[in-house]
Amino acid sequence: MAAQGRGSGAAVVLAAAAALVLCVLLQEARVAESAVFTVGDRGGWSFSSNSWTNGKRFKAGDVLVFKYDSSAHNVAAVNAAGYKGCSAPRGAKVYSSGNDRVTLARGTNYFICSIPGHCQSGMKIAVNAA
After folding, report:
1. Global pTM value
2. What is the pLDDT of residues 52-79, one digit of tens each?
3. Which residues form the signal peptide (predicted)?
């Protein structure tokens, strides 16, 4: 039976610790790559937000910040049918703080204001995240 050197166990532990640190650093780098966008820019989430995405590039993991008067509006994350029909389906995530942060998933992300008439008046956006 071959004898193991005293340092071999310590080397394995050191290598495992280095791998763990590397994984943490890579995850932090991915988070640092994410951009934060304020929907509507200085105007915030409003009736003129529907064209706000024009000319912008989004990636999965980017964060949208919806700023609005919470006594008058909300933000509902909806599917394509909810976006097209301006209705929040049962189970849709509805935000109402007035300062909501939403992380984009890969693909098209749809958001509307579910207060009656608001979506129809332009409070809706579709954001495609690469």
Report:
1. 0.75
2. 999 999 999 999 999 999 999 999 999 9
3. 1-34
